[in-house]
Amino acid sequence: MPEKLNLNRVAMPKQEPKMRAGNFNEVALGYQAEDALAEARRCIQCKKRSCTQGCPVGVDIPEFILALRENKMSEAVKILKGKNALPGICGRVCPQETQCEEVCALGKKGAPIAIGRLERYVADWELAQPASSKPKPEIAPPTGKKVMVVGSGPAGLTAAADMAKRGHKVTIREALHVAGGVLMYGIPEFRMPKRIVQAEVDYVKSLGVEIKLDSVIGKIATVDEILADGYDAVFLGTGAGLPMFLRIPGENYNGIYSANEFLTRVNLMKAYLFPEYDTPLRVGKRVAVIGGGNVAMDAARCSVRLGAQEVYIVYRRSRTEMPARREEVENAEEEGVIFKFLTNPEKFYGDEKGWVKTMECVEMELGEPDASGRRSPVVKKGSEFKMDVDTVVVALGTTPNPLVPTTTKGLDTTKKGTVVADEASGKTTKSGVWAGGDVVTGSATVISAMGAAKRAVASMDAFLKGQ
Amino acid sequence: MYQIVTREDLTPEIHLFEIMAPDVAKKAQAGQFVVIRADDRGERIPLTIADWNRQKGTVTVVFMEVGKTTRKLATLKAGESIANFAGPLGLPTHIDKYGTVVCVAGGFAIATIVPIARAMKEAGNKVVSIMGFRNKNLMFWEDRLRQFSDELIVTTDDGSYGRKGVVTIPLKELLESGKEKVGLVVAIGPTVMMKFSSLTTQPFGVKTIVSLNPIMVDGTGMCGVCRVSIGGVTKFTCVDGPDFDAHKVDWDELMARQRTYLDEEKRSLELWKQSCSCGGKT
Ligand SMILES: Cc1cc2nc3c(=O)[nH]c(=O)nc-3n(C[C@H](O)[C@H](O)[C@H](O)COP(=O)(O)OP(=O)(O)OC[C@H]3O[C@@H](n4cnc5c(N)ncnc54)[C@H](O)[C@@H]3O)c2cc1C
Ligand SMILES: Cc1cc2nc3c(=O)[nH]c(=O)nc-3n(C[C@H](O)[C@H](O)[C@H](O)COP(=O)(O)OP(=O)(O)OC[C@H]3O[C@@H](n4cnc5c(N)ncnc54)[C@H](O)[C@@H]3O)c2cc1C
Ligand code: SF4
Ligand code: SF4
Ligand code: FES
Fold it and tell me: Is the ipTM of this complex over 0.85?
């Protein structure tokens, strides 16, 4: 037990801003053993376990921290993985400050326990162990039931792993040539190393899950055909991958990207290693990223690393309304990203070859709170001004791809294009079909996608066993 | 991995691969395409489905060597494999009874218009085909297209075979003569050729379909790089197309967007030629 309450968390070692702005290596380097122990010792092991209630999948936080502190690392891994199949990922990208850490008892007086960092430490420790030393996951005897999981993002991977552990025969069908969803194509290497995602994908495969890539469901087969083909249940984890554009004049000039295109070229296709890898990307001297979420931060920070001299985040509200994680905003600022708040683009001008040159913007003021509770921006009259730009990345958000819903009979969607599914069970309006993650909620978080998948698994499993 | 079952060289620079991909073969329809990657470091590129064999489980693509990816592909032999092959993507060509359908194709696109001509013929249309090449040596599949055409006109730029000139000349004559009541023109080939075919048919008010070929990445509606302006509205070619009403296409925007990476593509090709043992000549 800790001698005396320490209200300051152990700092995370990070690459220096100057240095990291020139490479794609991970920014946060992770705790060393002594850091992790020191941080774990701060935990007062509360009876109330408010931290666990703040976690969307209910990780047994005090227990895993205790095991860590007592140097029972395999035990810590087991506790963690009992609730969260992807701790190496969540420890890195969960918005902990608004979840488990927000409600940590220590947060009232000082800094909450760095739960995410400890989670990452335990996961990375496990990854470094030789495969032979790892305990074999327990898999129930085969049930003879077949499950199809569509999409291999966090929702799909979680659903597949948990269904496989319950003895069902699981196949994943993924549209892209790599499994992992946004973790592979969206979130950059410097925040989410691909070898970590790959290790998680390999773990899911080790449970007997078959992953078929290059399979666009809705094209190669419809959900109805999958059901007719002998699958007893289908889980849709197809995410929200359709990019929104500004719909303003000049948006099709060369040099204007959706964040999805920009990040896919960089992360999935490895354009930062061009020409060693074949996919090109052109980033000019002045880059404007439109939007204020994690996606915008990632695009801006990729631009810095790709050699842009001035990188702007152009956001129509103010700093307080920005949905991006605070830590990532700070990282971006340290790397030299310039923030232009209360600014909104209205029009693009191009050169004779069709490349974007100038972006016309207006200034905004904050008016009354809107439906989301945030003060909505209104245009300041006569405030038009122009910015010279070589590259623009539009990061306004995404909606679900309609390929599956439009080809599936009886699958209801909302006006926003999300699939209608019961929150508690993930059941859709179509019998035998469950859904979870961004395809149901619209762009959300890794951990909420996993939570939804877990709830769907409970319901699917009960359904299959009752059949 | 997807195995190349057969390879055929249609001209020195245009090659045919028949690829083992049973799931794609099962669903392929005329006008759709696949997105492929040659190897693990490769770019994703779209190629139109030129044919399929559902029993054998194979899909045929025909490609022209233009840059690094297509030249890399051209070094592969039958029995070897490519890394990825996803499809069938895009909407199939709308097949209907139009009366007389004129199929116009240039270069490698002869291969892609064959299944369309076949489907149009099977739907009971009279099919008139016009195929154009730079010269006689670059010609292929005259017999195949003829098989599904009631009439076939061949043009070469230099007059070394068939009629001298470009495909738009016989197309214009056909429309002017009024001999045929043309219900639909389908034009596929290099963008300039499609643009001029569109300009040729426009004054006659004949419905014209083109298959657009912008730069693509995923081919599933996820990235938006394939966006084109159709009658002033932005569409994603990979999911809303690739077929569009030719008279509504913003051709200049499309051509500008296709040139986005010219410098990078050149650099990439040069480096590859230097490093590859064959010196770029396959
Ligand atoms: C750039 C970026 C940064 C982010 N940063 C964070 C962060 O820091 N923290 C956080 O918690 N969240 C973050 N998010 C959000 C988070 O990544 C998503 O909420 C999460 O990935 C959703 O998981 P999912 O499994 O529902 O969908 P996805 O991860 O989107 O996976 C869906 C998968 O389904 C596949 N698919 C789609 N359609 C088909 C089809 N028809 N057939 C077959 N396969 C199909 C897709 O190719 C994809 O692989 C970020 C998102 C982005 C884009
Ligand atoms: C729907 C569709 C169907 C197509 N069908 C065929 C076909 O059947 N046969 C055929 O030979 N070609 C086809 N193409 C064109 C083919 O994709 C390009 O020739 C190929 O991508 C060139 O790649 P490269 O690396 O060899 O050349 P590069 O040097 O990289 O590029 C040469 C030119 O090809 C275009 N291009 C480059 N990368 C892409 C990309 N990722 N996607 C699309 N275009 C690109 C650009 O305009 C570029 O200037 C099709 C294109 C589309 C969009
Ligand atoms: S999964 Fe996320 S929210 Fe839950 S404990 Fe871990 S870091 Fe916190
Ligand atoms: S609330 Fe904080 S201090 Fe209490 S058990 Fe959870 S992590 Fe430890
Ligand atoms: S190729 Fe990405 S959206 Fe069409």
Answer: yes
